[in-house]
Input
Amino acid sequence: MADGIQLVFPAQPLEQIRLGTSRVLEAVHSWHVLTDPSHHALHLPWVRACRQLPAALRQQLREHSFAVRSYIPAFLEAGIAHPDATIEEEIALIRAVPARQLVPELVLTVLEWPREADFGDPAVQELVISAAGRQPGAARLRRIFTQPEKTRDELLTVVNDYWNACFAAEFERLEPSLHQAMEGAARRLSTDGPLGLLGGLVPEVILDPARNAVLIPRSHRHEVVIIEHGGIMLVPSVYAWPHVRVTCDHPPWPLTLTYPVDPLIRPLAPPLTPEQLGSQLRAIAAGPRLEILHLTTVEPRSTQELARLTQLSQAAVSKHLQTLLAAGLLTRRREGYYVLYAADRARITAFVHALGRQLNAMLPAS
Output
């Protein structure tokens, strides 16, 4: 199995799949966009609009951005099973989460640490705090251990103020699209199954039809058999783009997959001509190039980094990169001294769809 989270769907998946959405979660995803605008180009209009927020609120958003910058705590998903809940009702559900369940999630917003650790043990707390190194991480962790409910409540206060200042009106605009996405997902699930629905998320999601599974590339390996978790909640989101987020194997939190709806509701690239499809097939018909393409779907990488990861010379990697660039499967940008290469998600999605159509046309009618 390749590195990542593999979700294995049952033979009859519809009974195991639910669809949900959340006001709090969508607001938090939009807040995440504000923490790194350059990574969320589709949402730059929202970034510009938020420059008009009161200075005090912008300061609060910055001070608490640690809670949404990289890891989003699972307790913020408490409302996804209640798509018609008000913001106040969702916040009440989050406030009802016991402190012992808050601590592991809040710790993960500061640094990676095994959830199963005994965070009630003072020795473990000191070990975690020392691992954070310099301030402000150590101070945040100390406060999380001593005042988890207060840390959560302060975070929810910022969410509520952000909602009232601007996101309530934005969610009113988004809500019809989210409900439409849920209805469309339900129809797609009934006709094409979960792989048909999630196929539009390539390369963030890699399909494995032989196992009726999908792989979300990550730096670790983890297989999740959905039927063993009592099902999965699929959560379409506008502001999650370009991320696919999975909450898995984190008792007591339910198994959820949050995915961006934008790639599913508009074409990402024009259809490929047979010549373009042939060029791209030739480009990936070599093991090293396929490995390079996979590595650049995880994050942008330099020639030097790719050479180290593939155990190839920089000259060989450079030649492979030029082939992939010529086929339109990569993009590149300069960042200081380095040139970074990234998989072109739109082109890869178009390639996968075009190849699927060609293969289906070759199969005999049943």
